[in-house]
Specification:
- 2 copies of one chain form a homodimer.
- With 428 residues, chain A is of the alpha/beta class.
- The first copy, chain A, has 3 domains: 54 residues, no CATH class; 202 residues, Rossmann fold (3-Layer(aba) Sandwich); 103 residues, 3-Layer(aba) Sandwich (Rossmann fold).
- Chain A is built from 14 helices and 14 strands.
- In chain A, the strands form 3 sheets. Chain A has a 6-stranded mixed beta sheet, with helices on both faces. Chain A has a 4-stranded parallel beta sheet with strand order 8-7-6-9, with helices on both faces.
- Chain A is globular, with a radius of gyration of 22 Å.
- The N and C termini of chain A lie far apart (62 Å).
- The interface between A and B is large, with 83 and 83 residues.
Chain lengths: 428, 428
Amino acid sequence: MAVQTVASTTDSTVDLGPAAALSCRECGHRVPLGPVFACEECFGPLEIAYDFSAYDAEELRKRIEAGPANIWRYAPLLPVPADVATKPNINPGWTQLVKADNLARELGVDAGKLFIKDDSGNPTHSFKDRVVAQALEAARAFGFTTLSCSSTGNLAGAVGAAAARAGFRSCVFIPHDLEQGKVVMAAVYGGELVGIEGNYDDVNRFCSELIGDPAGEGWGFVNVNLRPYYAEGSKTLAYEICEQLGWQLPDQIVVPIASGSQLTKIDKGLQELIKLGLVEDKPYKIFGAQAEGCSPVSVAFKAGHDVVRPQKPNTIAKSLAIGNPADGPYVLDIARRTGGAVEDVTDEQVVDAIKVLARTEGIFAETAGGVTVGVTRKLIENGVLDPTKTTVVLNTGDGLKTLDAVAGTGLTATIRPNLDSFREAGLA
Amino acid sequence: MAVQTVASTTDSTVDLGPAAALSCRECGHRVPLGPVFACEECFGPLEIAYDFSAYDAEELRKRIEAGPANIWRYAPLLPVPADVATKPNINPGWTQLVKADNLARELGVDAGKLFIKDDSGNPTHSFKDRVVAQALEAARAFGFTTLSCSSTGNLAGAVGAAAARAGFRSCVFIPHDLEQGKVVMAAVYGGELVGIEGNYDDVNRFCSELIGDPAGEGWGFVNVNLRPYYAEGSKTLAYEICEQLGWQLPDQIVVPIASGSQLTKIDKGLQELIKLGLVEDKPYKIFGAQAEGCSPVSVAFKAGHDVVRPQKPNTIAKSLAIGNPADGPYVLDIARRTGGAVEDVTDEQVVDAIKVLARTEGIFAETAGGVTVGVTRKLIENGVLDPTKTTVVLNTGDGLKTLDAVAGTGLTATIRPNLDSFREAGLA
């Protein structure tokens, strides 16, 4: 289903490259490309269907390799116009795939087999830049002039920054009583930053109301009415990992789960590369990672359920704290189909994993990175993840945004400014 | 002087690629490569002399373009072994050169002529990753096992991260009473983090003492005994800017001044590219940027002095707050020789410039980036910088590390979660 050849049903005024139509993930119903996200037949989620029929594998690979050092090198595989790299956008991606031999030693993985895909190198230091950059191109194609979202963290910064660069108005909605630091990170880009008197659910409810109202005309909510386009940005993680491994599939990938969308799109990206002949087909396993304090998918996986029972989140991994993840059932499918698993770790294990990753590889991860590294350790200890196989662990954010998680870290010694004091402290 | 062909005086056990010797910037005295930084004849600063005699311009350009997307693409021009990219290091560089058309409009620069070199995309989000990565390779070549520095900010993180990745012990010295947030950013990498009872001057004095003592054996202080190597890392900014402009020199570059080293090495890098035939020779102007509260070089420039009179720093741009900049006189030389200038802006202008850059280009800069953007604006208003010429402005750090500077930024509106309240606030 991921790679489809279709008669074009595209609105002729919309140029989004190889994107041919929107297709319902549940019933397959197709509609022309537009700012819609739910199937009119069955209310299932819409996703992009592509026409990749003209591609020759060797030519495509060369074209990608000659492209820019950002996600637009994959423009032929994304819902964007061919000249996307020339337009003002935040240009995320092509982040480092770090060979993590020190961490491998610590976790008992074979040397040369463990990699961290470090998305803290993106412009606003989280993977959200990938999906927002993608949503912005859709917004441009549909003639929207305001880019919007509800958020309490990474997404707010990504939307603010991308809108500023591209000359869009931005309007980000947040609960009115958010911590001052988070407000500053969202406010600095100069767009509208609107505090809503209420909690995060109230914010989301209000946004849905706004989309259905004439007041919301011309507004692109990146993860609502632009969601099918937005979500495709996560495919670029799969593309980059394979290209950086020398056009090979990894054996195992550990992906954080918030809504679950990222994990499903990584699988979609890998499937596309196989079908296009850019990588050799072989089995791979996808593992999902959650914090125990928000582990609805992990709980469902372990119980053998096909549906996900919502939870009320209570974890320091706030960027993953979605209690009712929309793509949960699809995540369960993929983990089971590929022979992977979904696992969770405690907040204490998250903090410990952040420190282990920083100490071994010099990568200061957000709490979400602590979740994936912590889950990787647990999966190895439980014999679920094979430490002899090529394994890629995602770090999707930056520790500077969640300093509180490691606030206990501090000086290892205090001395007077002389050599005697230095020697006494045992530092020589 | 920048590009020299020499008979090798290199210690035969040290492979640092094209680096042939250390040469005194003042008297030209040459010594073999080693962990020394001051001339034994005249106490002048030592810098790297290269043997670039074997290079053919066209071949070199192709070799660089085929290299990795980090500073090691320039390995043939740096004091590193040819296989440097295969060794564990932090691998900074190849950061975005952002065409800043929105900022250009705001500052009155011609469209397509203004660029931001955004070094916040480096692994620990400042340009310090470039110089530390370089110092680390020298430390490896000299058999050091501990990487060290004194720092109150960016350098601490860069040293901690690079040492962790490369398997060095690290020991970072800071004043014992630093703010908790800065301590956490330095401590998370798990090396020794030693608080010194005293102020920053006491810390530096102690480090000098340690280098001269047996207790400091095997210790590489990145910006003291490894300084000649460390400093060369800044050349990569010049290389990247030219390559990203299509192998062309910019007409004007605006560079922040702390010690002044970065500015002098950018000039050295540009001169090398000209002499190697990688760019066409043409005049360029280098402008230095300081905060008014620490403006010793700017004051000397305006007064027509050749020497720099030390100041006691008092500015929010703490990463630039060096009151007695070692390379100040060389900066004055370069600014005058190239027809550039040195200018300073108030803290208020720094904050305003941070906001302008974020609002127009979606780049959240550290205070140092506010200094360069603020100075660029002032130089244009004063008719010193030509708004019709290709101009590159450096952003060397990340706003997440200096959140306090923009702490006043906040919500643009607060509303109740309904459309009436939304309309009343004039947001539609």
